[in-house]
Model the fold of this input.
Amino acid sequence: MSAPATPVEVSPLAKLPIEFLGSFPDPMHPLDPPLPEFAMIGRSNVGKSSLLNALVGRRALARVSQTPGKTQLLNIYKLPSLYLIDLPGYGFAQADKGTRLAYRKLLEGFLRKRTSLTGVIWLLDIRHKPSKDDGEFHRLLTDAGCAVLAVLTKADKLTRSGRDKAAAERADAIGFPLDQVQVVSAQTGYGVADLGASLLAAATAGPDEVA
Ligand code: GTP
Ligand code: MG
Done:
């Protein structure tokens, strides 16, 4: 069997023990012991749960679904030096107005009041221009003053040149320097080890050095 063209490194988080702490409706749910917290946020179906699984090297830890809106609560995972929080996706078109408003409140509360939050991993699908929902969420992030690492998902859906071009366009659209944008594929593992290494480094460095 021939070696893959691009060797895929293993995410450093995959070597660590991980514990699912549970699903919580309260954005302020306290965590003990206090450790750096990173939240995965993005549009419904963007690939948050899949990326979390890839990052920690477990195939089916976080629930992945063809049905958008699957993750309804804060799902919290503990690693030895940090917490990962898988949040419900925003912009779930089929949800009724009340559900969307309740969700926006949850997200806003989470971003503004959760002082223990170290950084946000903001996921965008590399194939699409940021949507209206992404724009609104970007404003929430800016208002809350969160440290953000942007992650472009599903890179396997594009060719290498298409990927580079799209990454530059998306970075430009959200006003992030390219080195604050990580391109990944949960399917092939592309970029996942780098993202894992960045998270571990940020967890050790403290809140001021995340992005
Ligand atoms: P919600 O919890 O509903 O907000 O969705 P999510 O953002 O957690 O997305 P999820 O990980 O459940 O993935 C949604 C769909 O995208 C599933 O069909 C995944 O298999 C697919 N998907 C996720 N990541 C990738 C990827 O890197 N490449 C490809 N090709 N498909 C992916
Ligand atoms: Mg999910």
In short: Confidence is low (pLDDT under 50) at residues 1-5.
